[in-house]
Amino acid sequence: MSIFHDRRDELEKFEFMMGPARGRLAVSLDALTDALILIGQHGVYCTSNRNPSKPALDLETVMNEINGAKALIQSVMQELEKAREASQS
Questions:
Q1: What is the pLDDT of residues 3-44, one digit of tens each?
Q2: Burial of 16 (0-12, 13-18, 19+ CB in 10 A)
Q3: How much is the pTM?
Q4: Cβ pair 62, 39 in contact under 8 A
Q5: Residue 47 DSSP class
Q6: Cα separation of 62 and 43, whole Å?
């Protein structure tokens, strides 16, 4: 199934509140946050052999990449907001 079907209600709500582009970005952030939560839970059981207080290196890499993707999406949302404010002025 596609994300458009799985998160239909959430997409409709955020697209109505923020517009199509920003609404979809907001739902993307939620999906990435959900993925981080799942990886964090998995990291409790899959710890690094070198340092048991840290998740396995592959999980740490995935978490860093998802956090990077979230930061990029947030920056796009901020740019869209600035552009909208500039056009209203």
A1: 899 999 999 999 999 999 999 999 999 999 999 999 888 877
A2: exposed
A3: 0.78
A4: yes
A5: B
A6: 11
Task: Give the integer Cα–Cα distance in Å for 55 and 35.
Answer: 15
Tokens of 87: 């056009």
Dihedral pair phi/psi, residue 2, rounded to 5° = -90, 160
Alpha helices in 1-89 (DSSP H): 3-6, 8-18, 20-45, 57-88
Alpha-carbon distance 61 to 46, whole Å?
13
Q: What CA–CA distance (Å, rounded) separates 29 from 60?
A: 19
Q: Enumerate the β-bridge partners of residue 47.
A: 55
For residue 34, how many C-alpha atoms fall within 13 Å in the half-sphere facing its CB?
7
Q: Is-contact 25 76, C-beta < 8 A?
A: yes
Provide the token pair at 41: 């839970």
- Residue 79's identity, in one-letter code, is E
Is the separation of the CB atoms in 27 and 11 below 8 Å? yes
